[in-house]
Structure formats: C-alpha cells, structure tokens
Amino acid sequence: MICDQCGERSASVIVKQQQQGQITELHLCHICAAENHSINIAFEQDPLAIHQLLSNWFPTSQASINPVKKEIVTCPSCGFTFPKFLQLGKFGCASCYDEFAPQLNEIFKRFHNGNTEHTGKIPASYGTTLKIKKEIEELRKQMQVSIHGEHFEEAARLRDEVRVLSSKLEGGASSGS
Amino acid sequence: MAVERFLQPRASSWMANDGENVDIAMSTRIRLARNLTDFKFPFSFTEDEALKVDKEISSVLLDKGNELDYTFSHISIEELAQLQKEVLVEKHLISPYLANSQHSSSVLLSDNEELSIMVNEEDHLRIQSLQSGFHLQDAYKIANELDTLLEKNLSYAFHEKYGYLTSCPTNVGTGMRASVMLHLPALTMSHQIQRIIPAISRLGMVVRGIYGEGSEALGNVYQISNQLTLGKSEYEILQDLENMTEQIIQQERRAREAIVLNSPLVLEDRLYRSLGILTHSRLLTTEEAATCLSDVRLGIDLKMIQDVDMSILNELMIFMQPAFLQQYADKPLQPKERDFARAKLFRERLNKEGINSEGEDLA
Ligand SMILES: [Zn+2]
Ligand SMILES: [Zn+2]
Known about the structure:
The complex is a heterodimer. By secondary structure, chain A is mainly α. Chain A has seven helices and two strands. Chain B starts with a helix and ends in an 11-residue tail after the last helix. Mean pLDDT of chain B is 88; it is low at 353-363. Chain B has 13 helices and ten strands. By secondary structure, chain B is an alpha+beta fold. Chain A: InterPro entries: UVR_dom, UVR_dom_sf, YacH. Chain A: Residues 133-168 form the UVR domain. Chain A: This is Protein arginine kinase activator.
C-alpha cells in the first residue's frame, strides 16, 4: 500500500484519526507519520488488535452460547454479550468477569503465557480475608492428599486447622462490619 | 489555568540525565490500571457515571495527595484546546487515547511531572509514574505508594482469582505495565535487533520501535515492556524485565565496541556530520532530526563528541515534535514551516549552550 499523504513511499503505519465524530484511517509511510503525529514514543501498548486475536481464537460463535440455557451469554449488569466482548476486546464491567468465566481461562492462558490466576498485590481491605481463604484452600488440598494416602491422623489435624481458620473468617467478618 | 505550567518547553525531571546505564536506558515508566466497584467500566458507563467517577477520584487525590507530599493539579480534558492536548501527549503526560476521550475525563499531574493519574481513560484510573534512566524499582515504589493511598479511600474492583479487573483482558491481574526506553543504535546498525525482538516476545515481554511494529525505530529508540500481567507478582514481573533489560544493555555495549573497533574513523565522521546537520541546517524533518540526535547521543556516549549536554538532547527529542513547535511559535505551522522551526530550535538550543562550532552562523 502506498502512503496516503506523499503517494511515494510504501505505507507502514496506520493512523486512526477522529474528526468531527468520524474516525478516518490513514495509511502513512514512516516519514509522513512522523511529520503528522507526535513521535509518540509509544509508551502505551498499541491495542495489538486484541479483538482480532480474540476472533481468531473463537472463530465460531459456539463459545458464546450458554450450554444450559442455549442462549447468548449476556452480562446483566452492563448488557455486554460475549460476542460484543470478543468484537471490542474489552469488558463492560466487573461482573462480565463472572458472567463470561467459563470462556475466560482459555483467553487468559493465551494472553498470559498459560496463567489464569492472580498472585500479586491484594488491596489491604481484601487482604486478611483473602489470605485466610487461600490458606484454607491450601489446607483442604493437603487434607485430600492425606486421606488419599490413608494418613487419617494427619487429615484430622488439618481438618482442625481449617475449622480454626474458618471460624476466624466468620468472626472477622461479623466484627469487621 | 492549571494546565499552563505543564505546557512550557521546560524539562520534566524525568528527562534529566542521571543514574546508571543512562547512556542506553533513557527513561522508565510504570503504569497501573484500576477500576472502581459500583461503576461500569468506561466502555459501557453513562456520562453520569463518568462524571461521578471523575469527581470521586479527583477529590481523593486533591485531598489526600499531601499525605505523600504531592500537590496535584487537576486538568479537565474537555476544557483543553486541541493543541494543548497534543502537547501533553508529546510530553507523555497523557495518552493519545485520553486526548481523544469522548466523555468526562481528566488528568491529575504532580508538580514535578513524575506522576500522572488519568481518570476515565480505558480504565477508571491509570496511575503513571515516570523516572529518568533505568529505575524500575523506584518508579514502581512511587506508583505503588500512591495506589495504596488510593485504595484506602476508594473501592477497587478486585477479584479473588483474577486480581485487579481491567477493561482489557491483557491488563488483568496486576494491571501493571512496566517499560524502559532504550537507545540501541549499535544493535540496529548491526541488524542484531531483528534477532532479539522475536526471542524476547517468547518470554512474556515485548520490544518495539517507537512506531510499534518491527525494526523501524525512529531515532533507534525502542521500548521494552512486560506483556504478561496475570500469574506473576509485581516483584517477579519487575525482576524479569530488569534482567532482560540488563542483558540488552550489555549486548548494545558489545555491539558498540565492535563498531568502534572495526571502523572508528568512518563512525566518527558520521557522528560529526550529524552534529553538523543539527547545528547548521535550515530545514529539518522529524526523521532526520531523530536520526541525527541518535548519532550525536552515540557520539557523546563514545566520548567522540564532547561539549554537548546530553540532557539537552533528551529535551529536544520532546520539544521537536509538531505540537510543541506550534505551541512555541504560538501559531499553527504547516509541515514545511515546522521543518524550519525545528531547525531553528536545534540551532538555538545547541549553539547557545556553547558548542565550539568554528564556522560563523550567519542566521
Ligand atoms: Zn508518505
Ligand atoms: Zn458487564
């Protein structure tokens, strides 16, 4: 493609412009792009056509149909449907994350090198409760292993620990409110 | 108007030239994306919600900023003229996306211009911390302290499994994007950069030229940043990025040594020609200016060029851009007029600061 501005060099940059509410796309060579637009030392990730990636991964609309109700999954809080999410590449609200949860693992795995769970900072207000919950989860896993290996004393000890933590969680919730 | 001070062609502190590896690592940025519970995200919220979000976040920052010794100026985007927005974009204080925002949005800037908090960008809240040189940990510490202060006063959308919830699935988890800007002329000249870019992308990080894709980097400036935000802690992400950046810096140093060893006179000639262009030309396009700036910068690093102050070069990178030139000229300029204004800016800034250019400048 030839540059829209100089008509000489080949275009290497697509520039989207908003003028009087209309979005126009310009195909520019790197020289004209530099002239027209701030060098824009692109600190910001370009959207990398996220919606394009998404629609490549979900070519059919199969994924957007709720397997039980047989209808298109829609977020009741913001009205985004799963196809709309794919098309935009953006969530409409926090509830979308729960509504679209069955499909999200697959998507997150691809964007984040196989990861699906956050392991970083936790806001202080969520901190203690969430930490205890994650501990309980871990203890339950260990308990299953113990039962499987028929280490029942160990399993009983772990069960008691879970009880202590669970009561802490309930106590913390009621005294905290 | 609050914005005036931020539009001046005056260096921000992150354009300074200090710190380790500053010859190659020009600046560092940390960005945290956050959203509030109780409001839909910017892709679906109403104008009424946008206003409330803006009000809520702004009032917390204006009230509590002083707990961290910051004074913030609140700038409402819709009140800015087009050129003013562009100047803020060129200075990296706001994103192009925010400049084009269609709903109530604003930016809160710290006096030293190291912190910029964008409200109602793609997310309700974008905390951006800028530092000169290669300072990932410092930049994160500053962003994190502000984030911790904000979370005490605002209710963040956070999910037990997914972490901080963001509009874009590529930001979920930590919501953190860390970037370092690198000047890599020798890796570019020797074409090694084309080998490095794909190798890095397999490790959850990305290197790109100023224009995004490929090896076409204006002025040989590249940005390395983390791609992955979910499944690693902030600490791990910063560590990985730091290690990778250090490796690239070392490779650039080796490539520079090789070039100097192979053809010192050819190199010196080229770098001085570029200095000649910057100090004497009458018409200077952005591209030529960026190329010559890269050469002169390299010349200083290699101690071939003396008497030019590196921090002036950093400023010129920013101030040679179209909106700044027009702001400076106080009128709109056609591309050719910009080339003239740009050449004049370079002559003034570089010659004034006492380069011993022997030829008399007749202008
Ligand atoms: Zn062109
Ligand atoms: Zn939703």
